[in-house]
Amino acid sequence: MYSVKEVYYTIQGEGYHAGRPAVFIRFSGCNLWSGLEKDRDKAACNFCDTDFVGIDGPGGGKFISADELATHAASFWPQTSKSKPYVVCTGGEPLLQMDDDFVIAFHQARFEIAIETNGTVFPPDGIDWICVSPKIGSELIVKKGQELKLVYPQNNGDPKQFENLDFEYFSLQPMDGPNRAKNTDKTLFYCRTHPHWRLSLQTHKFLGIP
Q1: pLDDT digits over 108-148, tens only?
Q2: I need a labelling partner for 124 at 20 to 30 A (CA). Which of 1, 13, 105, 208 fits?
Q3: Is residue 174 helix, strand or coil?
């Protein structure tokens, strides 16, 4: 059984694959925050701006099998397209629910599978693109993948502590919120002075798309 907040088709707005059409599956639940405002101050990650509570979002629901969820996700991909379908699994924390059956079912449905994870749960084998977004103060156990995307700045967080991990790309993304402009300036400065990092912007937010 998979609990999904929402499923939708859009353009990836951030990170290495920004601009790429994708089906997004947002899984319900997270291990670093309940998703309830009353718990935000004491959460391990208290800057999250995503609603991942429940299964009441567009395209969301309970799915009894990985095959059922893969068929549902495939219905969002343009049926006339000859391109290989691309799915981004996010949350919450998608690895609380993703398993071997999920990977098998989505590969059988021709999907290229990407995840956006906080890196505190080991992924099943076979995921095509692993993007880890570390949350300072939590234990990072996923130290290998394709992209490490760090929200910046975070209290007591120095990007240099991640530079020796086994990732192909390192992205720095300004923290959203009331200080977004100031955080963007800090991120720009850091990327200029530390070219190991590339800038990631949440383009979907100023484009007005999901």
Answers
A1: 999 999 999 999 999 999 999 999 999 999 999 999 999 99
A2: 13
A3: strand
CA–CA separation, 133 vs 114, rounded Å? 13
Between CA 84 and CA 36 the distance in angstroms is: 37
**Nearest CA among 62, 55, 66 for reference residue 6:** 55
Q: Which domain holds residue 27?
A: 2-151
- Evaluate whether residue 131 is within a structural domain: yes
Contact 27, 96 (CB under 8 A): yes
Cite the DSSP H helix spans in the chain. Answer: 66-74, 100-108, 180-193, 203-207
User: What's the pLDDT tens digit per position in 157-205?
Assistant: 999 999 999 999 999 999 999 999 999 999 999 999 999 999 999 999 9
Please give the positions annotated as active site. Answer: 24, 30, 45, 48-50, 116, 204
Residue 39 lies in a domain: yes
